[in-house]
Amino acid sequence: MNDITLEERTRNLQGLGSSRKRVEDVRFTQGKGNYIDDIKIDGMLFGDFVRSPYAHARVTGVDTEAALKVPGVLAVLTADDLKPLNLHWMPTLAGDTQMVLADGKVLFQGQEVAFVVAADRYAAADGVEAVEVEYEELPVVTDPFKALSPDAPVLREDIKDRTEGAHGPVRHHNHIFTWEQGDKDATEKVLAEADVMAEEMVYYHRTHPCPLETCGCVASMDKVNGKLTLYGTFQAPHAIRTVVSLISGIAEHNIRVISPDIGGGFGNKVGAYSGYVCSVVASIVTGKPVKWVEDRMDNLMSTAFARDYWMQGKIAATKDGKITGLWCHTTADHGGFDACADPTKFPAGFMNICTGSYDIPVAYLSVDGVYTNKAPGGVAYRCSFRVTEAAYFIERMIEVLAIRLDMDAAELRRINFIGKDQFPYQSALGWEYDSGDYHAAWEKALDAVDYTGLRKEQAQRLEDFKAGKTRKLLGIGLAHFTEIVGAGPVKNCDILGLGMFDSCEIRIHPTGSAIARLGTISQGQGHATTFAQIIASEIGIPADDITLEEGDTDTAPYGLGTYGSRSTPVAGAATAMASRKIMAKAQMIAAYLLEVHDNDVEFEVDRFVVKGAPERFKTMKEIAFAAYNQAIPGLEPGLEAVSYYDPPNMTYPFGAYICAMEIDVDTGEHEIRQFYALDDCGTRINPMIIDGQVHGGATEGYAIAMGQEIAYDEMGNHMTATLMDFFLPTAWETPVYVTDHTVTPSPHHPIGAKGVGESPNVGSVPAFSNAVHDAFRPFGLVQSHMPHDHWRIWKIADDLGLHQ
Amino acid sequence: MIPSGFEYHRPENVSSAVEILKKHGDDARVIAGGHSLVPLMKLRMAEMAHLVDLQEIAELRRISFNRDNVVIGAMTTQAEIVSNGQLSSLIPILRETALLISDPQVRNMGTMGGNVAHGDPGNDMPAVMQCLDAGYTLSGPDGTRTVKARDFYESAYFTVRSDDEILTGITIPMPVMSGYAYEKQKRKIGDYAIAAAAVLIGDGKASVAFTNLSDTPVWSASASRALASGSIEQCVDCAMDAIEPQSDIRGPAEFKKHVAKVVLRRAIHKAMERTK
Amino acid sequence: MSKMHVKLNLNGREVEDLAEPRTLLIHFLRENLNVTGPHIGCETSHCGACTVDMNGKSVKSCTIFVAQSNGADVTTVEGLANPDGSPGVLQEMFREHHGLQCGFCTPGMITRAHRFLQECPNPTEEEVRFGMAGNLCRCTGYQNIVKAVMAAADQINSQKEAVT
Q1: Which of A359, A743, B14, C85 is the most buried (most CB within 10 A)?
Q2: Is the per-residue pLDDT at A744 higher than 80?
Q3: Which of the four pLDDT bands, split at 50, 70 and 90, describes residue A247?
């Protein structure tokens, strides 16, 4: 044991900073994952929805007679069947209510109208086909601005006369809330008196997280012992248990929620959906387990969309480019119900991080939430509660201001970054940024891509273009983003009243191996690998000797789940804190075994050594065994701990992304020539996994910026309901990424980690979009809307007269 | 996405397949690779009581090389088109086109017969077949007839083939002009064309056709004549008169018209460079 | 609709069951035979999560009726382990190079890569990207998948050299 060096002992742990290979992969690569649709219980039935073909209609009749005659069909649920249970409507995460099954009318195409329960999915589909629904079409509104006009159709007849909503006064039948942050008067004064003021509408279009696995569940009600087991694709299993208990009346201890392996979430699997409620009811009614799994069209048409923010911005600056104020009014299209997934006090999420990476003295934000005839949602698609929208907004406004000032956009950022010495930094819209060194990251990024060289090449290209030698332009897309993740302090963050802490329980076994359980749930992030690394470094047990479990509410400690990049900042902190509780006891055990005072031993990688006598030590293995076989005066046997961690603040990861893009002005095609991503996520737990997260998040960003959208026509018909039309790039279109990093630890996080999963989605979208805009900047383009698919880029060129 | 039920048939020759079609009329449909038909069935946009699978009919899998023509059996897959060296050297535009159809898995199932017979204006081979002046062999209860690809398509999903006929093969007259190109602009692999142009040129002749720019594939006689006479601009003008793209999720009609011009010019230049 | 008798040679073993002709091959594998490696992602032949090897070719089993596949040789990710049951080269390389995250696309991805490397044993990166373009991944951005496939090609080729 003594013949190996300290470095080797450290390496053997595979703790923090190690690119440890993932333990999950052994089963995933062999087809042995256990996803929701893999779950089979004897006698299990299958449920499927009848969905509305109309975006807005009265439902005047649902005839289930023919469906009930279809072989294999056992039951058809309608709103009328759910009414006696008061389950025909359910609460949303945003303080609204939502129909579980159409109650008199439908508000979006694809809305759930009836639930057919059958012996298998084929019979269920036949049953769905046989249900006859009578509709009476109503006028449709898909534009949130038109939805607020005085004569707009009334969408929510159930609440049309209210004057107070969940977030304050309501001024129109389709108005949901207005949320204001910052100092309105001071901001307007600065705007009025500014040397330079730029104003633009920045639209972040509607899109969808579209994980490769759709949403689904299996509900199994055991009528004999009164217990409900609910398996499902839940990003927040514990919260789901509480919600199910609250709305069904089943006591919480009689509900067990299990999230099995999840095939990607990206925010899509945070919310509560009709399928969950109907499966539970169907299981109670039939006495059999009921499975419901969406098909891809169900998923794209009805489960949570993301974004759809119209952000009107004004930015003021001195003529030298120092920003003096920022104003933003957002019109948020929430669809037919407000099922947005945000902490209760934040109806527009953390949109008030929209001052970004910049030291802006005054700012004002107001957000209007609006009902339209579109699907509900508004979830954070690989995003911490609207920070993607906020980052896109400010990174576009910076570019717009640079144009107005006729200034290089890299330089404009440099002038306005929050300085390293200003942290902790109080933003004008109410946040306290924990740490950062934006200038260092920025200079590193600009050097890495040879920014000066790129600009020279761009200038030459422009000359060639004007001389008719080429039809391709070069765009350089810059973005510096500041994330706000790790929701969050219980004092201001809760979902449905549940504080957004998280938890970890660790048990050390007598032989020195361990099991840890957390309140989170991995959907590909590799928690079983990385959280074991935190424990390995903290406790000195090799990561390979630590089992990690999540997702079973009967065994795991309560937690708020995995979304908003909160797992590492919150549950990761809980893991470190639980480890430290264990170490406090381990130290006492070690001292007892070594017959010295507690203060005379110190921890060294994987053992406690006597200070000044390093040859005298007890390894963690020895200490673990002692915890179970020695009667130590004043100590209970065993070695385990649990920590519920309420973070004192959010963490603020940041990064600098640069994209060089070739654009064919004649066809609107593009080619990503270079994409550089520098991330600072504080302490780096597993560099291999961080790189993987960046590749994946940037690819989602690429898709969103360059083609991915949920589109409706004026009749509210969903135009992008299959993967033929909804843009997911293949390996062929996807760019190659160069990743890089700086390390600015979070001062308030036990191990200094900030979280990284969502940064690349936040940062890459403005980088791609800014590259498109930058290519056309010499011809006068100031602002155009995403997604920048072929025709929209072609349209920019056409409008600028580049096709003559 | 679950299709409705059907009775399955796997005949071993064309005549028994035709027999089944004759017996069941509208209630029967043939399936080749199924990668157009199965998704429609899963969306319940196509339902039939009898599905006639052609996979066992060996005669439909042959490619025969004759002095005056090449005959491609309807069940030849796109992957087989890509990998057939002799075919690729004689009619290289087929391989170039097949490689632009969907992805490897789909090319393994998707057949030439299915691609040309389905009548989907987004399918790539119909325009190429029009460009090559190919003929389709249709076998029905009353025997066999040949219809030119240029006369086959009526509107989207409607062709001159009657319900009890099977498209059994494609005859491509030889020799084929040596300059060739199929230029397709699409958003990603797996997508249909925003616009695509097929061009053949050589020996003072030329032929020009388009994919997904009208409700049928479009072969333009005047554009072909113009190109044969050496006038690229006139060819482009004539071609623009021949197409009638629709606005959809891939973009508005005026954009597609513009792209049609661009891909046509690119195809012409590539084809001219390749002229032996 | 009456059921038909379906036989497959699945991962080297004869299997059979009754199924409606309209049953999709993916459902037959997953529901009738409990072979749950291949997954369902899009149901319209775009994502490739359901990719299996049928008669020596990569196909998407969500768009094939079991009736069409009756009598076929089918290989799924479960059939790609080494004869001794240890993970095959591709399975190892995907783990080694972090070629997966949520794991949902992985069985289809590896099954496609298995066939691709037989079609193209010495691929360039561009060839890997083109040859794997029938499989979508939402997590990895493909960069490490490409790396894993290239690394597997190297390993397979060096093993072959060692034998000859």
Answers
A1: B14
A2: yes
A3: confident
Catalytic status, residue A340? no
Residues B143, B206: one domain? no
Enter the DSSP assignment of A502. E
CB pairs under 8 A between A and B: 66
- A422 counts as catalytic: no
CA A75, CA B240: separation in Å to the nearest integer? 56
Q: Is residue B1 part of a domain?
A: no
Residue environment code for A600-612, b if the CB has 16+ CB neighbours within 10 A, otherwise e:
bbebebbbbbbee
- Tell me the residues of chain B between 214 and 243 that have a Cβ less than 8 Å away from chain A: none
**CA A242/CA A497 separation, integer angstroms:** 11
Q: What is the pLDDT along chain B (276 residues), one digit of tens a residue?
A: 999 999 999 999 999 999 999 999 899 999 999 999 999 999 999 999 999 999 999 999 999 999 999 999 999 999 999 999 999 999 999 999 999 999 999 999 999 999 999 999 999 999 999 999 999 999 999 999 999 999 999 999 999 999 999 999 999 999 999 999 999 999 999 999 999 999 999 999 999 999 999 999 999 999 999 999 999 999 999 999 999 999 999 999 999 999 999 999 999 999 999 997
The one catalytic residue in A215, A340, A383, A493 is A383
Kind of pairing, strands A472-482 and A738-741? unpaired
Distances (CA, A) of A656 to A104, A475, A670, A762, C98: 51, 17, 22, 11, 24
DSSP tag of C79:
G
Please answer whether residues C57 and B108 qualify as being in contact, where contact means their C-beta atoms are separated by less than 8 angstroms.
yes
Give the pair of three-digit tokens for residue B80. 């087989």
Cβ atoms of A495 and A555 within 8 Å: the answer is: no
Domain A36-138+214-262+269-302 in the same topology as domain A6-33+502-645: no
Number of domains in chain B: 3
Instruction: Specify the domain boundaries for CATH 3.10.20.30 within chain C.
Output: 4-78
Q: Which numeric CATH code is attached to A36-138+214-262+269-302?
A: 3.90.1170.50
Strands A112-118 and A45-51: antiparallel
Please state, for a pLDDT cut of 90, what percent of chain A lies above it.
Answer: 95
| Distance separating the N- and C-terminal Cα atoms of chain A | 78
Provide the H-helix boundaries in B174-252.
221-228, 232-242
Residue of A14, A235, A523, A525 marked active site: A235
* ipTM beyond cut 0.95: yes
Sheet holding A132-137, edge to edge: A105-106, A57-63, A132-137
Say whether C102 and A25 touch across the interface (CB within 8 A): no
Domain A305-487+650-799: give its CATH architecture.
2-Layer Sandwich (3.30)
CA nearest B75: which of B212, B201, B177, B170?
Answer: B170
Domain that holds residue B15: 7-53
Residues B245 and B151 reside in one and the same domain: no
Structure tokens at B243: 């197409």
Residues of B in contact with A296 (CB under 8 A): 1
A49 min Cα distance to partner chain B (Å) = 11
What CATH number belongs to C4-78?
3.10.20.30
The CATH classification number of A6-33+502-645 equals 3.30.365.10
pLDDT tens digit sequence for C90-114: 999 999 999 999 999 999 999 999 9
CA distance, residue A644 to nearest chain B CA (Å)? 44
Tokens standing for A422?
A: 């200003």
